Amino acid sequence: MSTLRSDYLYDLPQELIAQTPAEKRDASRLLVLKRESGVREHRRFSDLPGYLMPGDVLVINDTRVIPARLIGHRPTGGEVELLLLEPRDGGAWECLAKPAKRLRIGEEVLLPEGRKAVILAEGEEGRRIVRFEPEDGWRDWLDRAGSMPLPPYIQRPAEVGDRDRYQTVFAEHDGAVAAPTAGLHFTDEMLNNLQDKGVRIARLTLHVGIGTFRPVSVENVEQHKMDSERYEVSETAAKTVNEARAAGGRIVAVGTTSTRTLETVTDEHGIVRAGSGATDIFIRPPYRFKAVDALVTNFHLPGSTLIMLVSALAGREQILETYAEAVREKYRFFSYGDAMLIV
């Protein structure tokens, strides 16, 4: 077990950071890691159903990414970027503002179609609480005026095509400012085929926040504080997972967001409890998983909390060896990159 951030670093050539999605969702590559044997297999994502069995449950995160990035101007003409983070009481929103230092309480940011954002309060790290005016038709307006909040390592502006491709096919509940990217590889056809095969689908919601991109800035990871994210697990989802576990089926989480939610709501006896709330769970070695047996995930940033999570499942050395092989084989990394299955 290591508590040092530097022990979760690896060398990644810049050209392997995917800037665009694969031509088709399930055409991305899939690196399969079998934890017990250490065997690694190189497949296509379309091969995933061959690794799942009747009685397994695939747990997906049905959060929907909102077009959370807005460009406006101060009355003096200076450009302002607002990234919506969390809804607040009374229709207000917590936003990340750039540049923030000039935006004081009471100031206005002029937005498209004659709308404006009024600064209500100042927060830490460039955050502001704002109220959008007028409120009527605000959500429809956001769909027109906002753009998809692509991660900072995608070094291009969001395009029209990102509205579809930076969204899972099962996205339903508005609230995320980043996609649960492991889910981007699935198609409706694959999900239907899995169900026909006897694999059950359980849906939960975790609204992915900006904290997913926040780097670990301390060398001792025990000092790192996770951002809190809102989740909801229905009675139906909990029942599906609990029945499968009782019958000996595997729980296959799609993404670290589904994993973190499941591990939050599972008790010490391995029983998933329905409910809603917020989680700041930090999963890292030597964490013992209570619910998740297998994981579909993308490749994560060096030194990130997410590579620590997959290291808790498969072992740090084995994960770093697998990542090194993915680099040699020129897999595509991060949000629009290729996928990994840990079984």
What does the model show?
The strands form 3 sheets. The chain has a 9-stranded mixed sheet. A 6-stranded antiparallel sheet has the order 5-6-7-10-9-8, covered by helices on one side. The relative contact order is 0.21. It has helices spanning 138-145, 162-165, 188-197, 235-246, 255-265, 305-314, 316-328, and strands at 29-33, 40-44, 57-61, 63-65, 69-73, 79-87, 92-98, 108-110, 116-122, 127-133, 173-176, 200-206, 229-233, 251-254, 275-279, 294-298, 339-342. The chain is built from 7 helices and 17 strands. It has 343 residues and is of the alpha/beta class. Strand 1 and strand 2 (40-44) form a beta hairpin. Helix content is 20%, strand content 26%.
Task: Explain briefly what this protein structure is.
This protein is an alpha/beta fold and 343 residues long.
Strand order of the largest sheet: 2-1-17-16-14-3-12-13-15
CATH class of the largest domain: Alpha Beta
Shape: globular
What's the assembly state of these chains?
single chain
Percentage of residues in DSSP E strands: 25-35%
Radius of gyration, in Å, reads: 20 Å
Number of strands: 17
Q: In the CATH classification, which architecture of the largest domain applies?
A: 3-Layer(aba) Sandwich
CATH topology of the largest domain: QueA-like
What's the domain count?
A: 2
| Overall residue-averaged pLDDT value | 96
What kind of sheet is the major sheet?
9 strands, mixed
